[in-house]
Amino acid sequence: MTSQNDPNRKASFERFGRKLDEQFGDAAQRLEQESDRMIRYLNDEVVPAIRGKSTKALRTAAEQLQKLAEYMDRQRSG
After folding, report:
1. What's the Cα-to-Cα distance from 51 to each of 46, 65, 67, 68, rounded to whole Å?
2. What is the Cα–Cα distance from 20 to 16, expressed in whole angstroms?
3. Above 60 in pLDDT, residue 2?
4. What pLDDT shows up at residue 49?
5. Which DSSP symbol is given to 4?
6. What is the DSSP annotation of 13-51?
7. Which of 1, 33, 60, 67 has minimal CB crowding within 10 Å?
8. What pLDDT digit, counting tens, does each position of 4-54 carry?
9. How far apart are CA 35 and CA 24, in angstroms?
């Protein structure tokens, strides 16, 4: 009998395959959970913060443009 046909070797390989399959399945499930958690974090924390800072930046820019327009008006009439 050759070592390739050895039932113990086949059983060992099958156990290894099942163990590996279980580990990959667990890893895939953890990756999916972590990606869901990351998406929730981005949607709940990051996006609102960016939007809030964006509106603040637009308001600041609008104020500066208003000041520039007033300065230009004064220069033209003075």
Report:
1. 9, 21, 24, 25
2. 6
3. no
4. 92
5. G
6. HHHHHHHHHHHHHHHHHHHHHHHHHHHHHIIIIIHHHHH
7. 1
8. 677 777 788 888 888 888 888 888 899 999 999 999 999 999 999 999 899
9. 16
The pLDDT value recorded for residue 11 is 81
* Cβ-based burial of 69 (10 A; exposed 0-12, middle 13-18, buried ≥19): exposed
pLDDT of the residue at 13 = 82
Cβ neighbours of residue 14 closer than 8 Å, sequence gap 6 or more: none
Q: How far is CA 52 from CA 49, 57, 60, 64, 74, in A?
A: 5, 9, 12, 19, 33
**Largest alpha-carbon pair distance within the chain?**
108
